[in-house]
Amino acid sequence: MSVSRVIGLIAVLAWLVSGCGSAKKIDVGGSCVLNSDCNQGLVCTWGKCHVACNTSADCPAGEACVTSSDQSSVCQLPGQTYCIYNHDCAAGLICGMDQQCRKQCQVDVDCPYGQICTSAQTCVKPNQMDANTVPDGGVSATGSSPGAGGTGGSPDAFPYLPADVPASAGGTSGSGSVPDAGGVLSSTPDASPDLPADVSSSTGGVVSAGGSGGGSNSDAALAVGGDSGGTAVLCVDNSMVRPSLCTSTPALPSVTDLSGIWVLETIGAQIVTAPTYTNPFNAKSIGVVLVQVSQTGNDVAVAGHYCDRIQNDDSANPAKVVVPDAWAHTPFPIQRSGTFADNGSGQLELVLSTAIEVAGANLADPACDALPTDPNDPRVVDIDNDGFPGLTVNLTGSLLSGSLMSVQRQVTTLHGVAVAAERIEGGMTYESDQSVIESDPASIKNLYLMSKSSADPAVCASTFVMVKVSAADAGAVDCDWVRANEAALLGL
Q: CB neighbours of 358 closer than 8 A, spacing ≥ 6?
């Protein structure tokens, strides 16, 4: 080999070595293969550069220290926390009851330092216990006569229940047909057979009333009483009027099984009266929910979470409600049960039993407890994680503008039919109440107490639609997908 070629080869090798040694390092969140790909002090886990940690105190604010499948402890990146299914989480983690990816455990020593192992077998910080602990006892799966409580449902019968909800979390419901005695299905893990047990006692949840929990009436309604200031009390009332199907399209008899992934739209119609305004205003609260439907025989179980919330107010309303993304996109969980069976007129009808949704507070009795009005009430929680108690909506208009922090409760029952292979339409009974706990400016709270809101009593004022997600899209569906496609799916 000539000297010139040797010198040239040495130069190339020197350049290569120099290049390897001075390659730009990758910062937190960047893609990597080896630890050496990352900046000093970072480690490559799950294909991303992470901050190494011993406890969550080593992590940036809001991030948790978790242990990966290779037993390295790293600060969980924001995009690696939220989950619905176990497979949404990185290797070595499972989907916890609070819809956060967490390390599975049996005892405290399985967890990173400073965390504890809950009864749901996930590692959490001590202040996260309430949202991740399986309550004592369970919920009833069967039972339809007064005083007859059902037995706890078996999560093993459903493929989507995460490993962090032990079968033993079930129990036997109490007897009787009032909420405290088994007539209301409590928001505990067995109530959500298809998705994680993600309704926590600290964030409120969905509670089904009637036939699913040993109550005496599968169509039990909830009557609203109390004052207009939002402290109304709801209690089980068996005199509910069954809603109309609210569709002129006949049921498609070939649809007999509703199992699959659906997007549910609920439209709750309200009438609002405001001080100094003679005529009332119309408002519609629209919820868009991603749900998994499971059907066994005629029995239907629905579980999922909200993806979007939209307020559609009358154009003349002097104080229109604008739902900020923080609350609009909060993945508030829902769980409810019902039937898809012949309604006596030769068509299959979907009936989803009465459910109570409480957002912004933890009520011991979601049906009958008055809503809290004090921001320091220990039952109040920051459901939308915006730093303010309860949930926050904005108001804009000629009457007032500002922000309103409240606790909300709504009660719905759904009756509908499959008008196409991938579409269900129907009517919805709807009641709601709200308590304002803070406002900015403070005068908004006082003005709110002078206004009144009630469900629109007109037949078919409140309705619902369900659209089935195609098999081709099902694997990629999440809330981002739902929000991007809700106009095409639902006409929003």
A: 204, 205, 207, 366, 407, 408, 409
Domains in the chain: boundaries: 35-119, 206-490
pLDDT digits (tens, 9 = 90+) for 153-180: 322 222 222 333 222 223 323 323 222 2
Phi and psi torsions of 439, nearest 5° = -155, 160
- Tell me the pLDDT band of 132, cut-offs 50, 70 and 90: low
**Do the Cβ atoms of 164 and 195 come closer than 8 Å?**
no
Buried/exposed code over 40-76 (b: 16+ C-beta within 10 A; e: otherwise): eebbbbbebbbbbbeebebbeeebbbbbbeeebbbbb
The beta strand positions in 64-178, using DSSP E, are 65-67, 73-75, 93-95, 101-103, 116-117, 123-124
Residue with tokens 């067995």: 190
Work out whether the CA dihedral 140, 468, 78, 389 comes out positive or negative. negative
pLDDT digits (tens, 9 = 90+) for 232-247: 445 544 344 556 789 8
Structure tokens at 414: 């759904």
The Cα 36–Cα 236 span in angstroms is 62
CB distance 412 to 270 below 8 Å: no
Report the alpha-carbon distance of residue 380 to residue 392 in Å, rounded. Answer: 13
Structure tokens at 194: 């298809």
Alpha-carbon distances, residue 233 vs 167, 371, 405 (angstroms): 34, 8, 19
